[in-house]
């Protein structure tokens, strides 16, 4: 571990020899934290270790100067991994002869200079925090914190000397420092020389001799090690994600820069991809939300990594198909740039696939993670995924994953298995993928499905629409992907909860998916009281004869005779059986009874 002088580090920042990797976030410390930091330095108290990385290794990160430093054209020798907030604050307050842009306790912008109240500074160390003062640059007035009345004015050196406020901006500027020292001591030599001697010994020398403990990682350190180290030491508490690290790595790729006379801008590439996919299908996020809301960059990168490692395995069988963090961090720019367009198109195809399954809104998507291997398979197989047999098998795999709730836990290993096994499954004689063979649906699971928190709950609602459910008000045609949105279709109760409560029906049965179905907001407004009361109203509202309306009710896998009889127990048992048959058909396997699941 090295212990360079603070003055040397700040000079390195100023010259551009010490810069930030581009994945570091912006400097953001507020005024109070800066004052407390300066007080720590003036007392020569430990500041904590900073960590740097030598440049010049095989992995290059695009760099940028610390906030305030004018050194864009300089190639740094070190990159600052940990300590940005502290060193930037000290650089701006002590070294850069400009007012510091920060914020107050209410997060309002401030432009301030920092001073030391000499009289308070040479008193008790316990008062040192009070001795560090920030002064607005537009007024240069120190105000009473109790009533905001002006106390001293610091418009020039003479005013600073008269008030006894030392400007920290000159502490490392030898010429300006001596000018200010001479002005202070000559103002009242008999009084000020002893004060200055004590102030210089107890404050100034602490700043000038302050050591910064520093760990330096060698240039050979790998990207994943840098990412891991950064997360462990990052005192800002904001985790670094793979996308930010790849942004810095790709932008520092010399080969790409030489070929294109520009650096690679991963954020811009991702923005274009996300916007295009959001236009293709709503499950990929809306354009008025953040780029990482919903479908995220990590999802896209994982799909690219799956395709890349699958391709590598075809030539090197020992290669593992994988999309773990290390695979993303070592994803070469050349491979990403080559595969990204095909993976983007594959995700657009996935959007079309979801629309066919009648999944149209982000809140109705059972698993976002399951889209990743599906897009990878589409990328690998291309248009073969549109062949009837392969499409049928992919659809079965999808519903086994949803209804068997196979993607609710750790998924990275399942991603890899699914990609390899699904690609092989194009052969009619090949083994069934694990996600299909291992998926089960226990009959009594229907009783406990009551909210969108479950993938199976959302899946069954989509299957009801897909198999031909017709709305009870807009009854001209079956519900479709477009009418789901047009008619404000949501999940509604069939027997109203208030009516069931009045007859003592258990809450878990009242709220189960067995007592729910997708209906428009307009139809739901008429579902009041007993079904025998509201069904004729709905039939009249939709302009349909009662016997024809029974056929519409039946499209929701509901026995209309039992519903009109207000027989909840019989309705519940019958519909449970019909929904289980729907699930079995989608999964291509029989339903498991309770006793079998726990035998």
Short account of what is shown:
By secondary structure, the chain is an alpha+beta fold. It has 30 helices and 13 strands. Helix 1 packs across helix 3, helix 7 packs antiparallel against helix 8 and helix 13 (297-315) crosses helix 15 (333-356).
Structure description:
This protein has 599 residues and is α+β, with helices and mostly antiparallel strands. It has 30 helices and 13 strands. The strands form four sheets. Strands 3-1-4-2-11 form a five-stranded mixed β-sheet. Strands 5, 6, 7 and 10 form a four-stranded antiparallel β-sheet that branches. A hairpin with a 5-residue loop joins strand 5 (100-103) and strand 6 (109-117). Helix 12 (266-280) runs parallel beside helix 15 and helix 15 (333-356) packs across helix 16 (371-381).
Low-confidence segments: none
Helical percentage = 40-55%
Number of helices: 30
From the helix content, strand content and strand pairing, which structural class follows?
alpha+beta
Strand element count: 13
- Principal-axis shape: elongated
* Strand proportion: 5-15%
Overall residue-averaged pLDDT value: 90
**How do the strands line up in the largest sheet?**
3-1-4-2-11
Measured on Cα atoms, how large is the radius of gyration? 34 Å
Biggest sheet, in brief? Answer: 5 strands, mixed
Distance between the termini: 60 Å
Architecture blueprint of SSEs:
Blueprint: H1 6-15, E1 18-21, H2 31-42, E2 50-54, E3 63-64, E4 78-82, H3 84-95, E5 100-103, E6 109-117, H4 118-121, H5 128-131, E7 132-136, E8 141-143, E9 150-153, H6 157-163, E10 165-167, H7 174-187, H8 189-208, E11 214-217, H9 223-233, H10 242-251, H11 254-260, H12 266-280, H13 297-315, H14 325-329, H15 333-356, H16 371-381, H17 388-403, H18 412-424, H19 434-438, H20 445-448, H21 455-466, H22 481-486, E12 490-493, H23 497-502, H24 507-510, E13 516-519, H25 521-524, H26 531-542, H27 546-554, H28 560-564, H29 568-587, H30 594-597
Parallel strand pairs: 1-4, 2-11
Antiparallel strand pairs: 1-3, 2-4, 5-6, 6-7, 6-10, 8-9, 12-13
Helix pairs in contact: 1-3, 6-7, 7-8, 12-15, 13-15, 13-16, 15-16, 16-18
């Amino acid at each position: 571990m090295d212990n360079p002088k603070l003055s040397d580090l700040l000079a390195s920042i100023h010259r551009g020899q010490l810069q930030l990797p581009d994945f570091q976030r912006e400097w953001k410390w507020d005024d109070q934290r800066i004052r407390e930091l300066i007080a720590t330095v003036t007392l020569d108290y430990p500041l904590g270790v900073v960590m740097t990385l030598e440049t010049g290794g095989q992995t290059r990160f695009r760099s940028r100067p610390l906030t305030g430093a004018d050194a864009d054209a300089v190639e740094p020798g070190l990159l600052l991994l940990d300590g940005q907030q502290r060193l930037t604050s000290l650089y701006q307050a002590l070294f850069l002869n400009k007012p510091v842009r920060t914020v107050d306790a209410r997060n309002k912008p401030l432009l301030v200079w920092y001073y030391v109240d000499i009289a308070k500074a040479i008193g008790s160390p316990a008062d040192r925090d009070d001795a560090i003062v920030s002064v607005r640059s537009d007024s240069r007035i120190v105000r009473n914190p109790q009533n905001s009345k002006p106390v001293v004015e610091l418009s020039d050196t003479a005013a600073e000397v008269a008030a006894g406020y030392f400007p920290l901006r000159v502490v490392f500027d030898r010429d300006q420092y001596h000018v200010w020292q001479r002005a202070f001591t000559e103002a009242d030599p008999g009084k000020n020389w002893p004060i200055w001697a004590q102030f210089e010994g107890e404050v100034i020398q602490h700043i000038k001799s302050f050591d910064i403990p520093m760990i330096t990682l060698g240039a050979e350190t790998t990207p994943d090690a840098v990412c891991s180290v950064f997360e462990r030491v990052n005192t800002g508490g904001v985790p670094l994600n793979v996308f930010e690290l790849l942004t810095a790595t790709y932008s520092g790729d010399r080969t790409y820069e030489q070929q294109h006379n520009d650096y690679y801008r991963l954020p811009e590439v991702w923005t274009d991809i996300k916007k295009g996919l959001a236009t293709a299908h709503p499950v990929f996020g809306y354009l008025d939300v953040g780029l990482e809301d919903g479908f995220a960059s990590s999802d896209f990168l994982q799909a690219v990594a799956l395709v890349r490692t699958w391709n590598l395995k075809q030539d090197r069988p020992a290669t593992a198909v994988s999309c773990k963090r290390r695979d993303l961090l070592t994803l070469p720019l050349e491979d990403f740039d080559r595969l990204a367009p095909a993976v983007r198109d594959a995700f657009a195809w996935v959007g079309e696939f979801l629309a066919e399954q009648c999944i149209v809104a982000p809140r109705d998507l059972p698993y976002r993670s399951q889209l990743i291997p599906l897009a990878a398979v589409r990328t690998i197989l291309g248009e073969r995924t549109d062949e009837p047999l392969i499409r049928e098998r992919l659809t079965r795999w999808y519903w086994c994953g949803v209804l068997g709730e196979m993607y609710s836990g750790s998924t990275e290993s399942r991603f890899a298995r699914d990609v390899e096994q699904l690609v092989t499954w194009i052969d009619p004689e090949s083994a069934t993928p694990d996600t299909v063979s291992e998926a089960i649906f226990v009959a009594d699971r229907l009783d406990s499905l009551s909210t969108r928190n479950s993938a199976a709950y959302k899946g069954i609602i989509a299957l009801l629409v897909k198999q031909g459910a017709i709305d009870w008000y807009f009854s001209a045609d079956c519900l479709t992907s477009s009418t789901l949105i047009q008619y404000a279709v949501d999940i509604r109760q069939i027997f109203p909860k208030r009516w069931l409560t009045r007859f003592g029906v258990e809450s878990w049965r009242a709220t189960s998916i067995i007592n729910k179905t997708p209906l428009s907001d307009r139809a739901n407004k008429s579902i009041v009281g007993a079904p025998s009361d509201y069904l004729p109203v709905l039939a009249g509202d939709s302009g349909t004869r009662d016997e024809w309306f029974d056929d519409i009710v039946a499209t929701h896998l509901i026995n209309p005779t039992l519903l009109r009889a207000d027989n909840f127990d019989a309705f519940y048992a019958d519909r449970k059986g019909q929904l289980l048959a729907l699930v079995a058909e989608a999964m291509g396997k029989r339903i498991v009874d309770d006793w079998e699941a726990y035998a």
